[in-house]
Amino acid sequence: MWTALAYAVVGAIHLMPIAPVFLSETLSRLYGIAPGDSTLLVLMRHRAVLLGLVGILCLWAVWWPPVRPAALLAAAINIAGFLGFYALYGNPAGALRTIAIADLIALPPLAFAAWTTLARS
Predict the structure, then answer these.
(1) ∠ CA 66-115-12 to the nearest 5 degrees?
(2) Ramachandran region of residue 90, left (φ > 0), alpha (ψ -120 to 50) or beta?
(3) Domain that holds residue 71
(4) What is the mean pLDDT of each run of 10 residues along the chain (121 residues)?
């Protein structure tokens, strides 16, 4: 039960920024991006799709334990990758800090999910 809850929390955190897939206007609110920058708009909407896929995979892992290793790997790569780049570029303020905080909040449930998933393998 606790493992499923951990995957649900990680999945929910990954699904939170999915709005730009449907409403590009949310990019300026979420990330401070000008709506006229089409290159950045495409990249950020694509990022939202990928985060949505990780979130869906984690939620799938809540109900189907065989998918948990894949969900764990996808979420861990995403979180570690973002936090690594965030640190590499000097922990910038603004919207990126909000993303970093969300990823830091996801770390404990992700670590618990990893421990329970890998300990049972």
Answers:
(1) 65
(2) left
(3) 2-119
(4) 95 89 76 77 88 96 96 97 96 90 96 92 54
